[in-house]
Amino acid sequence: MTRAPVMREALVLGISLLSAMAAGSLLILALGESPAHVYGLLLRSTWGDSYGVGQVLFKSTPLIFTGLSVALAFRAGLFNIGAEGQLMLGGLAAALVGASLPAGAPAALALPLVVLAAALAGAVWGAIPGVLRACFGAHEVINTIMLNFLAAALVLGLGHEVFLPETTHTALVVEGARLPALGLAGSAANLSFILALVAAAAVWFYLARARRGFELRAVGLSPGAAENAGVRVRATWVAAMATAGALAGLVGCNFVLGYKHYFEEGMGRGAGFMGIAVALLGRGHPLGVVLAALLLGTLSHGGMAVNALVPKELVDVLQAVIILAVAASSAALDRGAGRAGQ
Amino acid sequence: MSTTDDAVLALSGVSRAFGAVLANDRVDLRVTRGHVHALVGENGAGKSTLMRVAYGELRADGGEIRLKGELIPRERHSPREAIRRGVGMVHQHFMLVPTLSVVENVVLGREPLRRGLLDLAGPAGALRELSRRFGLEVEPRARVEELSVGERQRVEILRVLWQGCDVLILDEPTAVLAPAEVRRLFGVLADMAASGLAVVLITHKLDEVCALAERVTVMRQGRVVDELDGRVVSAATIARAMVGREVLLRVERGPRGAPPGAATLLRVDGLRVTRGEGTDAVSDLSLVVKAGEIVGLAGVEGNGQRELVEALVGLRPQAAGSISLAGRELSRLGVGERLAAGLGHVPEDRLARGLVLDFSLEENLALGRQGEFCGWFGLDRRRLRVEAIRLLAEGDVRPAEPLACARALSGGNQQKVVMARELSRPAARVLLCAQPTRGVDIGAIEHIHRGILAARGRGVGVLLASADLPELLALSDRVLVMFKGRVAGQLAGAELDAPGAAERLGELMTGAGGAT
Amino acid sequence: MSGFLESLVGFAFWVQVLRISVPYVLAALGGATSERSGVIDLALEGKLLVGAFATAWVADLSQSPWLGALAGAAAGALVALLYGLLVLRWRANQIVVGVAINLLAFGLTRYLLKLAYGSTSSSPPTPGFEGGLAGNPLFWACAALVVVWQPLFSRTRFGLRLRAAGEHPQAAASVGVVVGRVRWAAVTLSGVLAGLGGAWLALDNHGFTAEMSGGRGYIALAAVIMGKWRPAAAALACLLFGFAETCQLHLQAADLGLPTEVIRSLPYLLTMVALAGFIGRSRAPAALGVPEDV
Description:
The complex is a heterotrimer. Chain A has a domain at 68-272. Chain A is built from 14 helices and no strands. Chain A starts with a helix and ends with a helix. Chain A is mostly helical. Chains A and C meet through α5, α6, α12 and α14 of A and α5, α10 and α12 of C.
């Protein structure tokens, strides 16, 4: 009874990765390069040395956060297309709070504070579509998209006030608010990666074990039955969106606290949308999300490495193909299973 | 082989299965012009499936379909084909697009054009003409969503008439109608039959059959079990053929009436519940349920039973009145708190409210009890597993597999899961049961009935809303009849065993009782 | 400020409003068509972008804006075909696929840009229609479409079936309407229209720039919602958004120190307000996003 779904998931992933490889090969061949050579170089430049590994972890970290964000909302039956905006505001909040602390603030105090600021800003931005859904029945997809644009406008508008003159970034955060690097051959990988793993574990516990997680899953699968079981459906929607926003907001840790130490316009752009791919590819399971993020992180860094041979935009195409393939093959397999099970 | 020339619709040996369930098993049926032909049977007997096969909506697995004597190949059959050959169907759930106008709905699929554009004026005129001829008044330009249920049904019938039909199939047309509308509809149908149409009426209500049909085909468990002459047959004969068993009416139960000195558990006073549009679904309703008492709730669908039960559980806000459980006021509590206070609810809509279909059985058994299974380290899966195995065994659920997906179970077994859960809550003192055996197989029905009676034996108070009168008569200590959101009357104790109890309930259900 | 007010009454200002609105209007007409048939149209952005690239590329090769526009429409239809294949044939989730198609368009156009022109940012200048707005055939085509589209919905057989398919596909199917075919037609139409919108972008800017759709697809979808899924009202909402964008450009030029982001945010805010039901009841087609399954 439990074997079949595992096989099914494996099949979905197999089909998807193969079709992405195939599409990639076509695009590479179109340039007159050898796919085997390009893929080989891509692998060597990522998992071949510790700098490559570190860069992969660095690129994967935001994807873990946004993947978890999308997956959690999805388990509650909601589409969070708004991770993009949530992570922008999370990053800005972390930078502003981190820069406003006194220079000698101890890390034990400063770090929790800035991390909290990032999560909180994301949570607020995420909660808005949740509230609109709960109170007015307004669909969250359009609202999260609109909020992405609003977040971008907000960052630009606030930028006039908070960016350093003649730049598009904020001041540096204080020493105590910085996350240390993981020390992988000078790569940008930092403690945020560990934080992301902790977040994944927490989400796993929440969904599989916690009472509220159980209720959230019930709401996602059947709001009517959940309501009948005494679950407050609307409150669950708001909570799920706020939590999803908080997870996306934590992306700010990676760039602001762990790498650049300031917030820059355009920081983390695209990670929100990629979160959808990660959540889909990870099949909504936290462990799957981590693995999917590592895979896409590999592509992302590897794309840079092979840029001399093929444009790095190839990676964007491959990521999109993966999403499409996962979406199509899982839907097709679901229908196949439904037919057989009736 | 009999001749099929005079039959406008003839089915022979038609079978149709849904997975392992054989909904139609080699069914023969002949429908001729000029008659009202009733197709009767209990819920799940396969009547609707058979007619949807005839209409081409469902593909037959085997057998022959002939329309006006002509064989229709199974794989070529479709609603379009049926309409083209003069077969029209009025579905139980209306197949109308709410945002379109009446005339748009009528022409949809066979739109007449004038100079490339839709011609709605012509059909609108034709509809007015048809309305007059058959007494089916409805404004062609009105939007369907603004129409009453009765009017929508008229639109469905008008559509079939406009398309030009020889056979009109109606699936449970009276389930949603008020008594006056039912009488009117029957008049129209009789006129149509008299004018040479063949009318097929799917129903499980015997009074309707006797009132209207000249031919009666009785189905049971997917087969035709009897063909009767509606003009001479009695309701009792049809009932026997439909049920084909006495088990349902012969449940083991003690004497009727609450045990002497039983405490009042549920007390409802002056309850008012409004529908979305502000009209009253339940108005000024009062009732009590005592410990160890089963109170039946009868009524034609749409008279407020559903809203009453939902308001009692807290799924629907109440406009006025009070609800108390063993002296504790519930009105201001949420669903979760009411469950904790001792309510249990077997919802009418099992699939949307009763179960999370994609949860495992053990997770479904924890629904509404999730707090009980949560400790410091979250959900105690081991304790849940032990409890689930016990409940599944006691509830005779098959498969008794805690990790099985609820979706994979039959309707009967799904309902057993819901029952087991609602009776398992440690604090459960009052059980609200809405249509507990609708669409459930016979084996499960007996089990569910035994479960309800066992709960009564333990001192649980039960409010049982059901459209199934034999069920109510068999189980209830008292039966309240709802009509237009109020209690129109009640039958208690010996009155329920007296001959003619069902007829008396029927009168009260149509508002003809006059009592209270 | 006074400079801005003066420009408001000027002829050039309103010509600019129209010019800016055209791609929105074309995409919104497409979006309304697709959504009324019950298919969510998040992929508008991708169709605009691919349409724009194809237009610039073909216009550059052929030196003909006509062929360019044709290529834009065809490319939009091609993207729509891919979308239809995924969501209609294979019933994949429409929201997921919509977003992914946009990502695909984003990556693919940049990739092709590099391939065709060796540039990461823009194509070389390409021909466009000369002779201003009044001499632009695409503008008049757009205007004609706005006039024609509402009656297409309300007065034709296709329109009636389209509305039925989006509101109650089972009912439509029960009277013999082939819902899948109606939806395929609607999705393809949306592709052609959005592709033309992309063509406008490329021809009006005399070339392709990476990411030149700049969120216009999403705004067009927002306009569809603002217009309550009615084509004429959606076009009107597009004009409003075009007006806001033109104001923003002029205010920026005037450099008032007033954050132009406020005006830029207007369409997004308005959409959210409309969606919450504050501007009358905005009701989506009942079967929007529901795959056809009888």
